[in-house]
Specification:
23% strand; alpha/beta; five-stranded parallel sheet
């Protein structure tokens, strides 16, 4: 298949150049103002929109196998393409959990059949994500993005130490959900002013940063590459900053909703319930500083869809998690780039370049690279409504908000995965 993306503003890593991108047999063949193609080539007119390296989301929940009423790999991958993502890494809180070659194959079989983009699964850290028995990391490592028990933290320091010692020789990343269960106190939103004023049980910041602190210490001890999931507190940011200054192999991510909202934005609505919760304004400001100074490496959506009924029970009783992957890019552009917290180039590093580097994912807009490309009109604005989503999950804290940045086309390994309009 030959595709010519024409009339685009092509991101070259530092700036834009006007021109075309020629894709042949899944690879980028040529980039430039004078690039053309043979008769019969498929044309995609960018119309002056931005041509970017395909985005990478290293933290999504596609719910299959086990919970397909919430999301499927087919719907989730289509939603990802709609959001401009060409690669995603799926978390292992599934049934069965991908803790063995047999269980992983159940998931990868569905991926091969239904995914329209690259979907790289995580395997678990412990058997069934129960925090006890370790799995065979060496056997699973070639087939997965990394190892995680996301959805719950590994509570035992000894188990986590042994896991890091087992994962380190594989070269894979351990992606840690950092949460001390003994400090949760049955909370479900941030333990702050809103919780006190409205009679809700709060989740302390310490429940996150204490385990971040422990896992960084174990990373130093074992040398295992540590990636800290969905950072939400100022203390966690500072701990990662110190770890990087000491040269430790520590990276981390946050999500767009933590950059846009804080506890003062909470409403008595399940749209605002996720784990970790929306924290204080000072926490949000620390996250914004963290993405600006390079402490935070990635922005991941933590796309965690539930049924509308599961999200309709208010703050206390709704399921934790929100739909995110289709809004991640426009939300970051609207709430972080346009106000001047970060540059456009920093956004691309956070959402494409750094995830590729950390997790060893192909891509880049240059000849010879796998053709993973996203075309986005950043002048286009839209209001978020439930009708926007291709995901089975329709619930987002951004509902009713105006965002800038509409994906025109997503090309994954040289194949159109999403096209907003008919191509010429």
């Amino acid at each position: 298949m030959e595709i010519l993306i024409e009339n685009g503003r092509i991101w070259n890593g530092t700036d834009f150049t006007e021109g075309n991108v020629l894709i042949i047999d899944g690879l980028i063949s040529a980039v430039g103002a004078d690039v053309d193609c043979a008769p019969g080539c498929r044309h995609i007119n960018a119309g002056g929109a931005s041509v970017l390296p395909g985005l990478v989301d290293v933290h999504v929940h596609f719910r299959e196998p086990g919970f397909s009423y919430k999301e499927t790999i087919e719907a989730g991958s289509k939603a990802a393409a709609h959001g401009g993502f060409t690669t995603v890494c799926t978390m292992p809180n599934l049934k069965p959990a991908p803790d063995s070659l047999e269980n992983l194959e159940e998931q990868t079989r569905i991926i091969r059949r239904d995914a329209c983009i690259e979907v790289k699964p995580y395997a678990t850290i412990t058997r069934s994500r129960l925090g006890g028995e370790l799995i065979d990391y060496e056997a699973l490592a070639p087939l997965v993005a990394g190892f995680s028990d996301d959805g719950s933290g590994v509570q035992s320091e000894d188990i986590m130490r042994r896991a890091m010692m087992g994962i380190a020789p594989t070269g894979k990343v351990l992606a840690a959900h950092c949460e001390v269960e003994a400090l949760l106190n049955k909370g479900y939103i941030h333990d702050g002013e809103y919780a006190r004023e409205h009679g809700h049980r709060g989740i302390s910041s310490e429940s996150e940063w204490k385990e971040v602190e422990r896992d960084i210490r174990l990373c130093e001890e074992t040398g295992c590459p540590l990636h800290i999931c969905h950072v939400s507190t100022s203390q966690s940011v500072e701990l990662v900053r110190q770890a990087k200054a000491e040269g430790l192999p520590v990276t981390c991510e946050t999500a767009a909703h933590y950059l846009a909202f804080c506890e003062s934005d909470l409403q008595e609505d399940g749209r605002f319930k996720m784990n970790p919760p929306l924290r204080s304004a000072s926490d949000r400001d620390a996250l914004l500083k963290g993405i600006a100074d390079g402490t935070i490496d990635c922005i991941a959506s933590d796309h965690a869809p539930h049924s509308c009924e599961e999200k309709s029970r208010g703050l206390e009783k709704s399921a934790m998690g929100v739909t995110g992957i289709e809004l991640s890019l426009p939300a970051v552009y609207t709430y972080a780039v346009l106000p001047g917290h970060i540059s456009f180039g920093q956004m691309i590093r956070l959402m494409a370049d750094n995830p590729r580097r950390i997790f060893g994912i192909e891509g880049g807009i240059m000849p010879g690279c796998r053709a993973d490309i996203t075309v986005v009109d950043f002048n286009a604005e839209f209001m978020v409504s439930r009708s926007c989503f291709l995901s089975k999950g329709k619930v987002s804290p951004f509902e009713g908000h105006n965002l800038k940045g509409v994906v025109i086309a997503t090309i994954a390994a040289g194949v159109p995965a999403y096209l907003k309009d008919e191509t010429k």
